[in-house]
Design brief:
Elements (H helix, E strand, L loop, with lengths): L6 H13 L9 H28 L3 H10 L6 H28 L9 H12 L4 E5 L1 H11 L6 E5 L6 H10 L5 H10 L6 H6 L14 H13 L2 H12 L4 E4 L6 E7 L7 E4 L10 E8 L7 H8 L3 E4 L4 H9 L2 H9 L3 E5 L14 H12 L6 E5 L24 E4 L12 H16 L5
Parallel strand pairs: 1-2, 1-7, 2-3, 7-8, 8-9, 9-10
Antiparallel strand pairs: 4-5, 4-6
Length: 442
Amino acid sequence: MSGNFSPMQRIKTFLKSITRWLIPGLGVKRWFALVLFGTTVISLGVADILLDFYRESTSTFWTDFVYYASLLFLPPFVRAIVFGGIGFGSIMYGVLKLNQAILRPFVRPGKPVIDMVENFRKKSRGPRVVVIGGGQGLSTMLRGMKNFTRNLTAIVTVADDGGSSGRLRDTMGILPPGDIRNCLAALSNDEDLIAQLFQYRFVNGGSDLEGHSFGNLFISALTDLTGSFEKAVAESGKVLSVHGKVLPATLHDVRLLAGKRLPYVDGEVTINGESRIPQIEGQVQRVWLEPDNPPAYPDAIQKILNADLIAIGPGSLYTSIIPNLLVPDIAKAIQSSKALKVFICNLITQPGETEGYSCKDHVNALEEHTATRLFDLVIVNDSEEINVKGMEWVKADPDLEKFYPVYRCDVADPEKPGYHHAGKMSKIMIDLLMERTGPLVF
């Protein structure tokens, strides 16, 4: 297509691409100014040598050459414009091509370097966001938020004991990597191949690998090589080029237990294990961790205290969200944080956990387990355009507004009934933060 452009169009396109490097916020102008200063100093030295040569030379040829090459026949102002324009254009073009040559191995085909630099700088100045939850809901939130900021932290529970994570936990004695793997994949800079590989699950019948995901095995192997689970997670993030951090709520080996009231059984029955809680029919009365009161992961506390926005949810109420808050220091840090704290209610109820629950019931369960008021605002879906058999939408109680500000909005994904839409949810969160803080400088 470029062959169809006229010379003037090509010049305009080139000048436009050059001047984009001078837009505010890229962090380029200061270094370009330093290059320009150094070039000017060198030019002054060369000019001084040429001037001495011109004055002292006895050769007519060389004096004429210097005279015309230096444009001494033109007024000083015109000479400054000509030489300044040539020098400035040459420096800009040289710096641009140098950057392209250096960054070529890291640039996606068809995407200009300036676009990648601008996008990186914009997200680097984005708000500090902490998302607390688990499962598909947390991954969806991260997938949307990474389009607005690189200062993104996911805090996940390590109480999972089912599936591949549970098997690795029992056989290798490591913390369950499942939710962490999902978050790393969601935050990946390239979710096309590497993230798909990370999420790949072996299905060979009869194999010892059957049911394991590649990402879980990868994190387990890195844990063995590095000697620590947190280092393994950090190195996995580097492999996936993630936009943010994924942190466990605690590094202690904790188990989640629940007291449930079962049909036709008097009293409360204890269910041992996160994976078994939703499988057994009955109403959850309470959940707790064993051992009780585990210490929080220090980096998680720091991120919460420094956050601009804390999003609690979406995710399974009793098996993904509350286990994080049962780490006492996590709940205390959220309460102490000056961030905008938002609870994002699930779209639908979950069998074995929240059957028949309204939005107010979700909020009450959180307050009962933490014995404190943790958030400033509740977001609840107000769209029920898609009705699926067996799906029970969570209702927004009018009574809840007596205790919390409630923001009703359409956050449902029309293509995935029962799930939040990543783009809608993240945009709403950023807009709410801007209403509180004023326009954010990206």
